[in-house]
Amino acid sequence: MSAVVLEELYAGAGSQETRTIELLQRSFVATRRLLVPSLMDWKAAGLLLARVARKHGYEHIGRGRLTNDALIAVSSARLGATVLTLNASDFARLAEFHNFQWQIARL
After folding, report:
1. What is the tens place of the pLDDT at every residue in 41-63?
2. Is 81 helix (H, G, I), strand (E, B) or coil?
3. Which H helix or E strand runs over 76?
4. What DSSP letter does each residue of 2-69 carry, written as one string?
5. Against a cut of 0.70, is the pTM above it?
6. Less Cβ around it within 10 Å: N or C end of the chain?
7. What is the pLDDT of residue 94?
8. Contact 83, 72 (CB under 8 A)
9. Residue 103, φ and ψ in degrees, nearest 5
10. Which residues, listed in sequence order, are joined to residue 95 by a DSSP beta bridge?
11. Per-residue pLDDT, 68
């Protein structure tokens, strides 16, 4: 689990959901399976976003919309982990410029 995903979950959660997310967080921390982006991940995400912007135009990277996805992509690549996502279009765009494993999640 990426800390970036936790941030996204907390941002969209009400009080009931927050308690559930806290349990999820504790579980991933306890099993040492929480991925926290490093300084180098932040740098790599910024460089990745710059490459996407040069090809597709800055307004097409969503003015930061892709920031979280780029952090998830580069930090998962660092560990050799596969990103599971429902957001195929953004991760496909990022994969044009950065080598990381991703696939569409099945619900």
Report:
1. 999 999 999 998 888 876 766 66
2. coil
3. helix 65-79
4. BHHHHHHHHHT--HHHHHHHHHHHHHHHHTT--B---HHHHHHHHHHHHHHHHHH-GGGGTTTHHHHH
5. yes
6. C
7. 95
8. yes
9. -155, 160
10. none
11. 94
